[in-house]
From TrEMBL:
It comes from Remersonia thermophila. InterPro entries: AB_hydrolase_fold, Esterase-like, Mycobacterial_A85_antigen. It comes from the Eukaryota. Keywords: Signal. Gene3D superfamilies: alpha/beta hydrolase. This is Alpha/beta-hydrolase.
Length: 463
């Protein structure tokens, strides 16, 4: 009897411990089978002192092709997700300016169940969404970590090496063909969902610190990268040499972006599972903080708008990677040792770095992916090509969104390549702004059409 009572005591103590550690926030994605999208997302967040809570951290209102332009201060439908219609998508709005830019659809309400809890529920279409809670914030894009009005979901921590490196969490919503079909736009992002059969189909993604003299972050002389190891990596008795893709972030980002904002591990798992590429190792390095001479040395925090770090010159980044990163990766992982199974790709300023690799590390890589490249002239000349004829033998992919502010720059780069007869594959993302839904689409098509395909590329029959 006594024993039973004390057991109950222990259980209730355990229970109160559990209650004490209860979740303070949550995001639930639910299949509803109902219009408008077939799915709904419920956010919950406990905060007793806030007078108002918005959701931001990357979440954007929706728009459609009839209400979007590619100008810097673009026209944008700014639809509430409750009004979703097939063919709607979201674009980033880096320079809010119009009065309607200040109307924000993602406002939480006080929960009916408990006074200190905030709730927001809305239908969402297919895609990866990043978010953070914004207590006492009156305009989402202005509420950043340095204003103290951005709280990262404590129960869905971002993928990051050191706390503070990433300032938003994410969730993924599946596609439902019954409610979301818009064949002309391909807004089905199911390739960003976790692959089925985890043991067989899912790789691993982790942070690695490596010695890089001069580095300022995450520690003195220590730099970091993210590595994706495909399913089966390390399990074979005979040493395999996996093809190796380097994937760069853009301005104001870091290596964890590709996983935290882009879910690259899911995309790779699905490219491999569906037979578009063989199992491939991906390394996503960080081009900031390589050393103090490259920029002002301050640690960049995603979402800290008052702190824009100058982008280090692509030439310096290439030299640094050649000295420290590439040798480290190639001597510590089962990766291939020749250009035919090495690729470099990147988005935006990472596309500029990819261009630098194409021009000045031509022999190291055979495949290059320039996603929304922010490249500016001067481009290659006939003289450069005459000195480096191998440029004509590479697998090159240039992609950009129809509504991306780098649209014209990327087109100019294509003109320069075309003018020299350097063949390349194009992808114009039909819903694309300078944002992660577009970069996901671009890396997906890079994998489907260019990566590790026999050179010269012949795309007929590949679709
Ligand atoms: C609650 O909101 C306040 C602003 O009123 C903010 O400073 C605080 O960090 C929030 N607390 C939690 C637990 O998110
Ligand atoms: C947002 O920040 C900008 C730049 O600091 C400022 O001009 C604008 O008034 C702010 N908007 C709101 C609604 O707070
Ligand atoms: C890398 O180094 C930083 C700073 O010492 C540390 O906080 C972090 O946990 C390390 N990460 C890994 C994966 O070892
Ligand atoms: C954001 O940037 C400002 C300006 O550089 C800096 O003073 C502040 O410490 C930064 N905030 C964080 C949280 O790093
Ligand atoms: C490059 O390395 C891969 C993987 O080890 C190998 O299969 C291929 O034959 C090599 N190619 C050349 C040209 O050496
Ligand atoms: C390539 O190297 C040359 C010589 O160092 C340099 O002038 C050029 O800026 C580099 N990058 C590109 C993209 O041409």
């Amino acid at each position: 009897m006594r024993a039973a009572v004390s057991l109950r005591g222990v259980l209730s103590a355990l229970l109160s411990l559990l209650l004490f550690h209860e979740a303070t926030a949550s995001v639930t994605v639910r299949k509803t089978g109902r219009a408008p999208t077939g799915y709904e997302v419920e956010f919950r967040y406990i905060n007793a002192t806030a007078r108002r809570v918005l959701i931001g951290g990357g979440l954007q209102p929706f728009t459609d092709q009839f209400h979007t332009t590619g100008t810097l201060h673009r026209t944008n439908g700014r639809f509430d997700p409750h009004d979703y219609q097939p063919g709607d998508f979201w674009v980033s709005n880096p320079w809010p300016q119009l009065p309607e830019d200040y109307v924000w659809p993602y406002e939480m309400r006080r929960s009916a169940d408990r006074e200190d809890e905030w709730v927001y529920t809305a239908p969402f279409p297919s895609g990866t969404y990043t978010y953070a809670f914004l207590p006492d914030c009156d305009y989402a894009p202005n509420c950043t970590v340095d204003t103290g009005k951005l709280v990262v979901d404590p129960d869905v921590p971002p993928f990051m090496n050191v706390p503070g490196d990433q300032l938003s969490s994410n969730f993924v919503v599946p596609f439902d063909a019954k409610f979301q079909a818009s064949p002309e736009l391909n807004t089905n992002f199911d390739y960003t969902l976790p692959a089925p059969h985890p043991c067989r189909n899912r790789g691993r993604v982790l942070h690695v610190n490596y010695t890089s003299p001069g580095s300022l972050h995450p520690a003195k002389d220590v730099h970091d990268f993210v590595i994706y190891l495909p399913p089966g990596y390390g399990r074979s008795k005979t040493k395999k040499e996996y093809p190796l893709l380097y994937l760069s972030h853009g301005a104001n980002g870091n290596g964890a972006d590709w996983e935290n904002l882009g879910r690259i591990s899911h995309i790779m798992d699905n490219l491999i599972r569906l037979g578009h590429i063989p199992p491939t190792v991906v390394v996503a390095p960080t081009f900031y903080n390589l050393d103090a001479s490259h920029q002002d040395g301050k640690k960049f925090l995603y979402g800290n708008r008052s702190h824009t770090v100058p982008v280090p010159a692509a030439r310096l980044v290439r030299e640094n990677y050649e000295k420290y990163l590439f040798p480290f990766v190639e001597s510590n992982y089962d990766v291939c040792r020749n250009s035919s199974c090495r690729a470099f790709a990147g988005l935006s300023m990472g596309g500029v770095l990819t261009y630098e690799m194409l021009v000045n590390a031509t022999d190291r890589f055979d495949y290059f992916g320039l996603f929304a490249p922010a490249t500016l002239p001067p481009y290659l000349s006939d003289k450069d090509l005459a000195r480096n004829p191998a440029l004509k033998k590479k697998g090159i992919f240039v992609a950009y969104g129809l509504y991306d502010f780098v649209f014209q720059w990327a087109r100019d780069l294509q003109d320069a390549l075309d003018g020299l007869g350097i063949k390349h594959v194009t992808r114009v993302t039909p819903f694309g702004s300078h944002a992660w839904n577009a970069f996901q689409d671009q890396v997906w098509f890079f994998g489907k059409t260019v990566l590790w395909k026999p050179l010269p590329l012949n795309l007929r029959g590949r679709r």
